[in-house]
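Q: Could you predict the 3D structure of Xanthine phosphoribosyltransferase?
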Amino acid sequence: MRFEPEAKIIENRIIQVDNFLNHQLDITLFNEIGKEFKRRFSNKEVTKIVTIETSGIAIASITAQYFNNVPVVFAKKHAGINMNLDVYEATVYSYTKDKDYTIKISKDFLSPTDKVLIIDDFLASGNALMGLVSLLSQSNAEISGAGIVIEKSFQEGRKRIQEKGIQLESLAIIDSIRDGQVIFK
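A: Sure. Here are the predicted structure tokens for Xanthine phosphoribosyltransferase:
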């Protein structure tokens, strides 16, 4: 992972990876991420990949190529007037924005026959992932697992997901942030 010197630490709590993951996208890196998620979930059936807007969309899209181009569905934070009104929805607290969002997925795109791999950029407290788990539970879809690019293991996200019995695979696991430095597990 390309942390040094490109990642920036804000207030010893937020990791900004805009240079390669969240604003400017390193497609070569994303291809490797997609391959690795395929390797880690190769024993699972996946009929759809689900993520949350915005940063997860590109990662999920490239990952989908390695799962026979399954559809990618993303939970919308800002549903426009053109969105179907028949939706699954959940409230998610955003740590970086310090506010609640209502995320929505049209019922047209999830069904009880789906086997869903959740893909996202970060796992910290687990709020976004738990929101997606709620949407998938509402649809009665089966959760095949959750793939995370960067996990902050010093927060509660992993515990919350594992308590649900979901296979969780994180590519980079951060043990702590001290004095503006990322300490990996």
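Q: Anything worth pointing out?
A: The radius of gyration is 16 Å.
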